[in-house]
Structures are given as C-alpha cells and as structure tokens.
Amino acid sequence: MRAEILSCGTELLLGHISDTNATYLEQSLAPLGIDLYFVSHVGDNLERLVDTLRRAWDRSDLIIMTGGLGPTEDDLAREAISTLLGETMQVDPELEAQLRARFARMDAVMPERNLKQATLIPSASSLSNPVGSAPGWWVEKDGRILVAMPGVPREMYRMWENEAVPRLSPYTGGKIFTRILRVYGMGESTVEEKLDHLIHNTNPTVATYAKMDAVDARITAKAATSEEAERLVAEIEVLARQALGDYVFGTDKDTLASVVGTLLQARGQTLGVMESLTGGFLSSAITDFQTSSSLFIGGLVAYSTDLKAQLGVPRETLDRYGVVSDETARAMAHATREFLGTDFGIGVTGVAGPDEQEDKPVGTVYIAIEGPEGVVSGTGPGWRAGRSENKRHAALTALNMLRRYLEGQLTPE
Amino acid sequence: MRAEILSCGTELLLGHISDTNATYLEQSLAPLGIDLYFVSHVGDNLERLVDTLRRAWDRSDLIIMTGGLGPTEDDLAREAISTLLGETMQVDPELEAQLRARFARMDAVMPERNLKQATLIPSASSLSNPVGSAPGWWVEKDGRILVAMPGVPREMYRMWENEAVPRLSPYTGGKIFTRILRVYGMGESTVEEKLDHLIHNTNPTVATYAKMDAVDARITAKAATSEEAERLVAEIEVLARQALGDYVFGTDKDTLASVVGTLLQARGQTLGVMESLTGGFLSSAITDFQTSSSLFIGGLVAYSTDLKAQLGVPRETLDRYGVVSDETARAMAHATREFLGTDFGIGVTGVAGPDEQEDKPVGTVYIAIEGPEGVVSGTGPGWRAGRSENKRHAALTALNMLRRYLEGQLTPE
C-alpha cells in the first residue's frame, strides 16, 4: 500500500509551526507495514490544494490529510476533496445535530460558518472527534482511500488511532521489526562500507544514519508475523555485528553513558572524572543517565592549571610534560581516584582553542582512564569544527574508551 | 519569486527525524520577501526524487533542497539534479583537494566513495561548507535557481546564511535588516502578548520563535537601502525593549554564557561553580564561550553529599536544612569561592529524579550566587519533561541570575 501525507496550512509554510503531525504519522505507518512515499505541505489555497491532491490521487493508494477542517474561510480541505472528486458537499443532519449539541454544552451560539464542519460528500463517511468540533472524513473511491483529519495534534492523534487505524486493518498485511545497532568510532561512510554486502538486501533492509552521538545501523524486516520479522532481523544482526566488531556499543535507545553506567552498576563500582578541555560536558553526559547518582561520585572541571595542582596533579608532571600531555591526562585520572575515592577515574586534557597552547595545535586531546585493573590512555578524535562539537566528540571518545576497558577490549597497563 | 523546499531522506519519511530544516528555511524566506508555495519530503529513491524535482522545476523559480549530499549510496541529491538537467557529474579538482585535505587534517584515509562529494555539473558552482565534508551546489539554468545543501542542520544553517542568501540578493529586491532580541524567563506566548501591538506590523515585521536556550523576538525590515532598513528596525526595537524590559539579555548571536562572560571580562573578575542537579551542564554551558579560559577557574560537580562536604559545604548545613535547600545552595556558592578562590561562586542543587529526595518533589531546584557585592538566591524554573531538559533549564536560569546580578538588576544581601 503506497501512502502519502498532505499537511495543509499556510502557517506551516511560514515556519510558525513545525509539522509534528507528519512525524507522528510517519512513525505510525512504518510498523503498520504501509510504505510512505511522499510528504507535502500546502498553503491554504484551493487551486494548489486540488493540484496536490490530484497528483496524490494518481500515484498513491492512501492519502492522509491533516489540517484545513476548521470553520473559517481558509480551511479548505473539504472543498478541495469535493472538487477533486466532482462531488457536492451537503450538510449531514446527524453531524449537524452533534455540532449544535456541542455548542449548546458550551453555552455558546454556533456561528453559521461552522455548519460546514457538518458536511459530507457521497463518498465520505465521518470520523468522530470527541475532543474538537471538526469530524474527519474517510473517503473510499476508485480503489483509493483518503483520510482527512484536523490539524490540532491531540485531536488528530486520537482520531488516527481510534478511528482510522482500525479501518485500515484490512490493508495492512505484515508486521515490522526493527533493530538499531549503535556504532562509535567509525564515520558513517566506513560503517556503510563494512555493511556493503547487506545494504542491498530488500528484506530485511539495512541502512545507516549519522546521529549526534553515534552512527546507527538500522535493520528492518517485514513478515507475516512479528516473530518471523524478528527472526529475519536476528539473522542479519549476527552478520552486521561480525562486520562491525567492537565498534558496536549498544542497540536501540542505548547511549554510551547508559552502557557505561549499566556496566559499572553490574560491577558495583564508582566513577569520577577530571576534565579541562571538555569543560563539564563529560560529567553532563554521564549524569544524563538516570541512575547515575549511585555510581557517579563527581566531576572536577579543572580549567586552570593551578586548580589541577590543587586537586592533586603533581606540579612536576605539569611542568615537565606540559598541561596538554599523555602524562598529565594519566596524572589527572590518578588524582581523580585519590581525591574522589572512586574505583575509576578519567582524565581529559587538550587545547580547546581559539589559541594554541604549549605549541600544541587547537584540537589536541589526551584521555586517560585509571581503574582497578590499571591504566589505559589514548588521544582524541581529531579536531571538529567548533568548540562545542569538539567537546562532545572528546567526551564521547572518553566514554567509549571506558566502555572498551569495562568490556575487556583494552589491555590496561 | 516562487520558492519550493524539497527535503530528502528516507529517515524523514520513517519519522526517525523531524524536518526542522524546512521550518528554519520557512522562517528565513518570509523576511526575504520570497513566497514559499510547497514543501515536500522525498525518500532516498532516484526515480521519485527526479519526479519531484521535475515538478518543482516546472512550477517554481527557486528550489531549495536539503539532504542527500552525503558520501553513501543512498545520498542521491547530486544524481537526481544531474538526471533532471541531463548533465554529467565530474570530479572538480579543487573540491577534491579540499576534501582530501580535510581527511588528512583528521589523520584519516578518505574512503573512495567520498569522492562524489567533490563533483559538480556544468550548471553548478559549489557552496563552501567549512564545518562538514559536503559542499553545496548552486545551480542556475533556464531562469531557475536550485540550491542543494547538506541535511545536517548546523552545516545547512551556516551554508544558507553565508553562501546562499547573499547570492539571492539580486532577486529579493530591496535590502533586509534583521535584529533578534533574545529573551529569557518568559514563555513564547507571553513574549507574543507583550509584543501584540507590534506583531501586526507589515514592515518591519515582528515574530517570536522558541529556541532551546531562549525566546527570540525577530524584527525584520525591508527598504531600498540597508541604512533605511536598519533605521526602521531601530525604531521598533526601542518599543519592543520597552515592552520586554530586563527579560532581554542580548541580541542576535548572544548566549547567556557569552553575555555573562563579557560582563565578567569587563570587570576583570573570575567565576567558579558547584553543581549537583545540573551535573556538569552549567560548567559546559560556560565553557562553550570561547574566551572562558581566562575567567572560568573551574567547576565542581558534587554529585554525592560526601563530596559536597569534602569541598567545604558545612556538614551542619547539609544535616539541618537538607541537601536540597536554599541554605545548601548558598553554602555551595560560598564554598566554591573559598575552594577555587574566585570572585563569584554559583551553587545549584535540586532533585533530578527519577526518585524524590528529602520529601522534595522531582524538579525542585535551588540556585545561589555569592559575589563581591553579596548573595542572591532563588528557585529554579519548575520541572520540564526529561532529565536533560531540566538540567538545561536550571543551568540557564543560574546564568540569567548571574547576568541580572552583574547588570545591577538584583539587590544582593
């Protein structure tokens, strides 16, 4: 079933509101096994609405319209559908009675212009809207289905779930299952290269997406039953994990912070950090994980050199190797464990810019982690554009290093 | 000039991401005097992309595409444009050199598939992208203009403002001047209410936008000369500032952190923070400001009660008033100044959830600031949905309190 969404409203084209209705419907269609091919926004103009509807009618089996069902002159969804199908809108007595009753309940007189909210055409039946004045239209004609719903999100969500989805069940054969593998430490194009042999599959499909905190490899299968779809995904997941190896840090809604937090909780161990370059971002990423209070003792944002010394980084190390050095990162990790009494300490130092420091270029990053099994250290991910970007990538690299330490993928000294 | 937006990406149709790019562009086009007639989302499918492009080419003067410029096989924007125009993509030596240099800077080997990001067609010139690997395309042919930009929002915003908008100036007739007033501490609808008498103006126009870190009131004028446009904006700015008062913390690209940083620099004073609820977010917000190193000495993320005591918060205060209290926030601010030797100390404490603490509900926030003139304190902004949202709002409220302290709007005890 080929579906298409049409969002009506000049306020969308002016950017006064975002089309969250489309996002909601998109998320609902995929699991129903309905393929969505197009989304369009059209202003409140009858000619352009009819043109866009006609094209949708020609190429799609299911058209979902939102907006344009209000009582005012620029609410033109009903008029556009009637024009498209060459049918005449007529007031439906039952809908009119409901509408008048609604106004009576609110002790209000119904403006006569509202009467158009009680109209139907011969091909349309109404979709009830208990939380608003505009009923929806369910249109079936020439093997096509058109659903017109109000633009107010809470009215639309309710009408979609309670009225439209049940009517669609005869057409939604097949169940969908999706698994996301979350990958850190490889760019999107490298992930795709590694998955090249799987990406041309049609069922399950495999696709990559660059996110702020990781690259996602998404495996989606469609089958007669949920169990069968899940089994198809599981087969491909094994192959994808073989190709991506230790770079996969989690699945679905996992974050590096949640994975590290869960690993530390399982060990009953605690964490502290001392950060300069990342300036608090690393602590903040860790504390986004909701049960971090039990395992994260604290963070020390040691922006000045004196503060590093005050917190236990030896002056000698700072003087001899420089603030931006592997030795200082290690000393920071060690001082963190001492000062905070934690099982693990992370030290992150580097040059945040805009100026060079100790002849080291902007973007230099050193990370060290000290834990019960010893120390690991490494350099950061290379400079990204902008200060906050660089802070994020350095913090994520530190969390990924801790994850690999905890999972036994790194050998501590 | 009739414009149309085309957002490419199957992830849009699956609802995995919302099309915030379209909203951004819509907001930008209205003040330029460019009329937007259609917005479409299309998946990563060459045939459907070309079809949609062809229709756009037939009915619009300006087509703005976002997405589909990545290096992978499902990034098909360039291929679709080339097919539409019957032109052949060729590697541009200069773009190739830039791309290879970018990978070299990151100490990475460029996957060969990335080379397609260095291609052009005869009708296209490139739009530079200093913050990403994909340059944009600026296509002029047969009286039409097509702008293709990356889908990553921060890359797209920058390219649109710095590269595309200046090239559009011959078509937008007249000069545009925009001034944004940045507002903190009021919701968007309150800002709109206060500006009600200005919002129905047509030149300058006044519109409000809710951003992650503030509400923006955007004043835009169009006139024959830049000077005239600027004069028109200045007149309205005076009235808008009268209506909004001290809630305006800055203009244009200012952030609360940059305003506070600039005020502290002017006084030659330093800052330190002790935060628990905000978990590092406050330090991170401050260190996003690029010259923070000279004024921000450090941050103490004191997540555990013992660590607060270790850093100088009296045990008596913690025991008597509780960790989540005005008294503890004040003691944290004081201890920060003592421990870090700074002119100003901020203390933030509260209940981050998911569980209540000391019988105080999730979302309780106490903030205190101690400086040379004395102490101010207050409660936070009330609970927002989700842990990271709440951290952000509490941190921004603390920065706004410091701004008002530094600007003499608050009377320290």
TrEMBL record, chains A, B:
SMART domains: MoCF_biosynth. Residues 4-171 form the MoaB/Mog domain. CDD domains: cinA. It holds the Pfam family MoCF_biosynth. InterPro entries: CinA, CinA-like_C, CinA_C, CinA_KH, Competence-induced_CinA, MoaB/Mog-like_dom_sf, MoaB/Mog_dom. SUPFAM superfamilies: CinA-like, Molybdenum cofactor biosynthesis proteins. It comes from the Bacteria. Belongs to the CinA family. HAMAP family: CinA_B. This is CinA-like protein. It comes from Reticulibacter mediterranei.
